[in-house]
Amino acid sequence: MDLHGVTALEPAGPVLDGAAALQPGDVWLAGGTWLFSEPQPGVRRLLDLTCLGWEPVVVDDDGDLRVSATCTIEQLTSWASATEDTPSLIAQCADAFLAGWKVQGVATVGGNLVTALPAAPMVSLLASLDGVVELWTLGAGAGPAAGLRRRYLPVAELVTGDHVTALAPGELVREVVVPASSLAARTAFRRATLTPLGRSASLVVGRLDGSGELVVTVTAATQAPLQLRWPSSSLGSADAAADAVEAAVDGAVDFSEPRRTWHDDVHGHPAWRRAMALAQVREVVQELLEETP
Questions:
Q1: Where are the transmembrane segments (predicted)?
Q2: 99, 141, 191, 229: which has the fewest Cβ within 10 Å?
Q3: CB 217 within 8 A of CB 229
Q4: Spatial distance between the Cα atoms of 247 and 265, rounded to a whole number of angstroms
Q5: CB–CB of 177/131 below 8 Å?
């Protein structure tokens, strides 16, 4: 897709450093796999974040995983495959892209988050692992006084609807931090599509932390991530827990709140998505609790 309205491609550094001001029509550019896939009539200047040299994946001194916004899907999966004791969930969600190696070599974690499709696999992955995004907001104007402000938001709250996020105008994702405790947790993964190579219509991840907390995250079937959690000790047997969690997930869908509705598009009818999601919720809860020592 040629973006005919774009008049400039510039490194993002001068704007982030305060040497230049953010202008109307500016857009942050990382991989660009979505940006260049359809017309963008309001875009005038692309600010290239890949020039900043952010380290794709870092494990800090606390054992937390820090994934930069410009980390490509290929870089994340390569790191996971080369590192012992990484959750298989990373590969499972990367496979949900259903994109060829060329796209995975360019598409970025940050781009997938802010595109905010219900079926965005990095949203599924990072929301289910309690990832927190570091967001950068530019001060008004240019120069050192403009400065950068930082705020932090759980991934599960970043996406608020189909193609809708909680980002303020001009705000960008710097990185996502995944707690070490989430990386060490056991997970169960279920995904449904209408066709073998179709977009995710329902994706459910169950996570059982070392503390005994059970976390269930539903994506793709809903407009935005739906996440519920319980102390597993309060849920009884695996079958009883599955009943309770399934009922809680179904009851959490609120048609008065757009983000809390079952998604509806060509990839699945809302009633079918609901049925698949609730069945998957039951399966992940039973899998995790039946295997608990």
A1: none
A2: 141
A3: no
A4: 24
A5: yes
Tokens coding 131: 């990832």
CA distance 225 to 155: 9
Q: What stretches of the chain show up as alpha helix (H) in DSSP?
A: 13-17, 73-82, 89-95, 101-104, 109-115, 121-128, 155-158, 180-184, 238-252, 270-290
Cite the DSSP H helix spans in 119-223. Answer: 121-128, 155-158, 180-184
Task: Tell me the residue type at 162.
Answer: D
Q: Taking phi first (over 0 means left), then psi (-120 to 50 degrees means alpha), and beta for anything else, what does residue 163 get?
A: left
The pLDDT confidence band at residue 26, using thresholds 50, 70 and 90, is very high
Bridge partner list, 262: 222
Tokens of residue 147, six digits: 């400065």
What pLDDT does residue 98 have? 74
**Contact (CB, 8 A) for 130 and 179:** yes
The maximal CA–CA distance of the chain, rounded, in angstroms, is 62
Pairing of strands 164-165, 172-178: unpaired
> How far is Cα 289 from Cα 233, in angstroms, rounded to an integer?
10
Q: Read off the pTM.
A: 0.92
The CB density around residue 110, as the number of other CB atoms within 10 Å, is: 24
**CA pair distance 185, 163, nearest whole angstrom:** 30
Q: What is the model's pLDDT at position 146?
A: 60
Contact yes or no for 153/245 (Cβ under 8 A): no
Q: Around Cβ 31, how many Cβ atoms within 10 Å? A: 24
Rounded Cα distance, 32 and 145, in Å = 30
* Torsion sign across C-alpha atoms 245, 250, 251, 252: positive
Q: Which DSSP category does 248 fall into?
A: H
Q: Could you report how far apart the first and last alpha carbons of the chain are, in Å?
A: 53
